[in-house]
Design goal:
Layout: E1 6-11, E2 15-16, E3 42-46, E4 49-55, H1 56-59, E5 78-86, E6 90-97, E7 100-104, E8 107-111, E9 119-125, E10 130-137, E11 143-148, H2 149-152, H3 156-163, H4 167-174, E12 182-185, H5 191-205, E13 211-214, H6 221-230, E14 235-236, H7 239-260, H8 262-272, E15 277-281, E16 285-287, H9 292-300, E17 303-307, H10 312-319, E18 334-342, H11 347-354, H12 364-375, E19 381-383, E20 389-390, H13 392-395, H14 400-403, E21 415-417, H15 427-438, H16 445-457
Parallel strand pairs: 12-13, 12-15, 13-14, 17-19, 20-21
Antiparallel strand pairs: 1-5, 2-5, 3-4, 4-11, 5-10, 6-9, 6-11, 7-8, 7-10, 15-18, 16-21, 17-18
Helix pairs in contact: 3-5, 3-6, 5-15, 7-8, 7-11, 8-12, 10-12, 15-16
């Protein structure tokens, strides 16, 4: 795992401050009595960026028990003084809520006495610097976190450089196809994460006979450049070709629906556009182990899917009006972030039915998943186990997005799907995690470790 950019050397007990409701007025108590136990920072994403953070509310809540879901530990009107030693040189980017005062060798180098939500600041540091940090709290959340700015500096060109060494192994695996074509509908907002998803399928999961990508009308020129360099083996289907096919099946009403709503387009490319025997994966799924269990189930079933919550009631409210459906619905827990389908149903009927759903009756993802669930509810289906096809939205994730040990995979996940989260793995997180996720089958394991070190140290 990544090493933190700092060690905590000392931490004081919280001490009260004088403030006027907007500004911290008193001086920091640099020599406040020290705690006997030091806080332990942890990785988390703040505003989409990875930091080693200290959550003072959690640290100071004293494990007190409360009625209901009350949270404590605010320490309103207090400040804490802690000392860190930086482990490398560079620009230290840090987030704080509220403000903080920092000194080095007795000289103040940063002053922020205001109240504010999480905000980023930067100071230049050298390896071995001792920083004394006084962090105050007005009310609400109370977090401090930092990382070296060298970690943050990654653009698409740098991302391509770090992921390119895996491409040869990916292409080699694709020469020995072991399963059905793979479809992806890609928004393009995090192209490096998309590449990591696809590489993880091929290096860890199975070798699809073909890789088919949709959604190209959403990609910017830099995103197209990333995909052209890192996914040269993929077949990219133009959106115009998809729309022409949809108009033949369902007329202009169907094409208009697909144009208006991205999840309607996802349903169209997965269900109505060939190939009709395939596996589908969202671009926020990491594959950590062989997909043999899913592919074995697919030999005897027409639909195999990763599990979600039981949404039968919601799916039927959107799609069940004109259909006589089995009860309970065998597909009521489908999650279309990962599924395999052998679609032998009449395509014109499927297109007609797609226009019958009440799109505004619920969240768009329920409309899309409910369409697949209802149309294929009479087929032979297989639901995969939640322990292997893992969904952090319900079950959490030990260590968090950046703290889980993807290399050793101690929980035995086959996939982790980050659907439903307000903060999914970013492109930067993907670069940090790529060596751990991909190195098992990557022929150049030494280079993979080197790549991770390059992302870590800049």
């Amino acid at each position: 795992m990544l090493n933190p950019p700092y060690d905590i050397m000392r931490c004081s007990w919280p001490r009260p401050v004088t403030h006027d409701g907007c500004q911290w007025l008193s001086d920091p108590e640099w020599n406040a009595p020290a705690l006997r136990v030091l806080p332990q920072p942890r990785w988390e994403q703040l505003n989409g960026k990875p930091y080693w953070t200290i959550n003072w509310r959690e640290f100071f809540n004293g494990n007190l028990k409360f009625h209901g879901h009350h949270r404590s530990g605010e320490m309103r009107g207090f400040h804490v003084v802690f000392e860190v030693r930086t482990l490398d040189s560079g620009m230290l980017a840090f987030m704080d809520d509220d403000g903080s005062i920092i000194r080095r060798k007795g000289q103040v180098i940063h002053v922020d006495r205001s109240i504010h939500p999480l905000a980023e600041s930067q100071i230049e540091v050298s390896a071995g610097d001792r920083l004394e940090i006084a962090h105050w709290q007005f009310e609400g959340e109370w977090t401090w976190g930092a990382r070296l700015e060298s970690v943050r500096k990654s653009n698409d060109a740098e991302g391509v450089r770090l992921l390119l060494p895996y491409l040869k192994s990916v292409q080699k695996r694709l020469l020995r196809a072991s399963g059905p074509p793979l479809k992806m509908f890609i928004h393009g907002s995090e192209p490096l994460r998309t590449v990591l998803t696809l590489y993880s399928v091929i290096l860890n999961g199975y070798q699809p006979s073909k890789v088919v990508l949709f959604g190209e009308d959403q990609w910017s020129a830099p995103v197209r450049n990333v995909f052209s360099k890192l996914l040269p083996f993929a077949s990219i289907v133009s959106t115009q070709e998809v729309l022409a096919h949809l108009e033949e099946l369902g007329g202009r009403d169907l094409t208009a629906l697909a144009r208006r709503h991205p999840l309607a387009m996802k349903a169209c490319v997965s269900i109505l556009f060939p190939p009709h025997e395939f596996c589908f994966v969202d671009d926020d799924v990491f594959v950590l182990a062989s997909l043999h269990s899913a592919l074995s189930a697919f030999r005897d079933s027409d639909l195999v899917f990763a599990p979600d919550y039981d949404y039968e009631k919601e799916y039927l409210s959107i799609w069940g009006r004109a259909l006589e459906l089995p009860s309970p619905l065998p597909t009521r827990r489908i999650n279309t972030g990962f599924f395999c389908l052998r679609n032998s149903l009449d395509q014109h009927l499927l297109a007609k039915n797609l226009l019958q759903g009440l799109f505004e009756a619920g969240p768009s993802w329920q409309w899309e998943q409910g369409y697949v669930a209802t149309q294929f509810s009479r087929c032979k289906v297989k639901e995969l186990p939640t322990q292997q096809y893992f969904y952090p939205y319900f079950d959490g994730l030990p260590g968090g997005i950046l703290g889980y040990d993807y290399a050793q995979n101690p929980c035995g996940f086959v996939t982790t799907h980050f659907g439903g989260l307000a903060e999914k793995p970013s492109d930067l997180a993907a670069l940090i995690l790529a060596p751990e996720i991909l190195r098992k089958r990557y022929a150049g394991g030494t280079q993979a470790k080197k790549s991770r070190a390059q992302v870590s140290q800049g």
